[in-house]
Amino acid sequence: MVFNGLPLRSGVLFEEVTLDERIGTEAVALLIDPEPHDLLTNGSLNLNLKAGIAATAYGPVLFLIWWMPPIVDGRPLAFYEQVMNPLYAKTSETLLRLANQTHLHVLLIDVIGQVLTVFECRNTFGFDRLQAGVNGARVAWPGLDNFGRASKPTNKSMASINC
User: Which residue among 66, 70, 97, 124 is least enclosed by CB atoms within 10 Å?
Assistant: First the structure.
C-alpha cells in the first residue's frame, strides 16, 4: 500500500481505510518518518499522546504531540506533531470514529508514502475528550477563521493553551 501526496517531513495524519473487510472502514494514523530504522527494529510501539486546543487571533488549533519514551535530557526518543482545524466538520467526525474504536492502527510510512509496517495500539488516547473539546471550540469561535495563519509555528498570537 502506498499513499500519495503526503508531506515530505515527519508527522502524523489520520486517514480512513479498510484494513480488514470484517471490521470495515476505520480511522488509522499514518506515522510519517523519513528515518524509520529505529521504529522498524523495535517490535512494538510505545506511543503516547499529549493534545490540546490553542486559541489564536486567527482561530483555534487542535494540536496532537505523539511521543515515544525513553525521555533523555528532557526529550523523548521520538515525537511527531499533528495539527488539525477544530472548526472543520471532518475533524470532529474523525475524532468520533477514533473514540469508538478499541484499537488504533498506526501505519509507519516512509517519505515516499510506502507503508513499511502496521502497529496496533490499544486505544487509550482519550479521543472522546478531544472530540468534546473540538465541539466546544466550534461553538465558541465567533466567526471566520484563517487556519493557515493560526497553525503557523511562528504565530505569536497564542491566547491560551489547554492540555
Answer: 70
